[in-house]
Amino acid sequence: AREAGGWDLVKLEVLSDPKTLFPDMEETLRSLKLLVADGFQVMVYCSDDPVYAKKLEEAGAVAIMPLGAPIGSGLGIQNRVNLRIIVENAKVPVLVDAGVGTASDAAIGMELGCDAILMNTAIAEAKDP
């Protein structure tokens, strides 16, 4: 990122399963620590596990980006309880990062207290975005 454009802000995604694109949380945490030590500000794609979300924040993540459902699935937020716990315990922004398929899914994320919702496949594959 620095060489390409001088940016210190990066998004980290370490995937473990090529089918579901779920994050590998152990490797994500390890990679985050390396990037932070190198001076990067890191937004982290992660599972909806509140324990790992807190570990990522404590390791220096500037934003936590838990999945709502598998990337590209459009299934919406599958675990509202965990997402709310992440939001309530976070001192950094929380952005839902995957699985959001509709505007109503995005509204649910905002109602749960998320700071933002990443919309990708829902817009990219829309007939009239």
Layout of secondary structure:
Layout: H1 2-5, E1 9-12, H2 25-37, E2 41-46, H3 50-58, E3 63-66, H4 80-89, E4 95-96, H5 103-111, E5 116-117, H6 121-124
Parallel strand pairs: 1-2, 2-3, 4-5
Helix pairs in contact: 3-4
GO molecular function: thiazole synthase activity
InterPro entries: Aldolase_TIM (IPR013785), Thiazole_synthase_ThiG (IPR033983), ThiG (IPR008867)
Keywords: Schiff base, Thiamine biosynthesis, Transferase
Question: What's this, in brief?
Answer:
The chain is of the alpha/beta class.
Task: Provide an overview of this structure.
By secondary structure, the protein is α/β, with parallel strands linked by helices. The protein is 38% helix and 14% strand. It has six helices and five strands; from the N terminus they run αβαβαβαβαβα. α3 links the parallel β2 (41-46) and β3 (63-66). α3 runs parallel beside α4 (80-89). The model has no long low-confidence stretch (mean pLDDT 91). One of its GO terms (molecular function) is thiazole synthase activity. It catalyses: [ThiS sulfur-carrier protein]-C-terminal-Gly-aminoethanethioate + 2-iminoacetate + 1-deoxy-D-xylulose 5-phosphate = [ThiS sulfur-carrier protein]-C-terminal Gly-Gly + 2-[(2R,5Z)-2-carboxy-4-methylthiazol-5(2H)-ylidene]ethyl phosphate + 2 H2O + H(+). InterPro entries: Aldolase_TIM, Thiazole_synthase_ThiG, ThiG.
Comma- or semicolon-separated keywords:
3-stranded parallel beta sheet, TIM Barrel, single chain, alpha/beta, Thiazole_synthase_ThiG, globular, 5 strands, 129 residues, thiamine biosynthesis
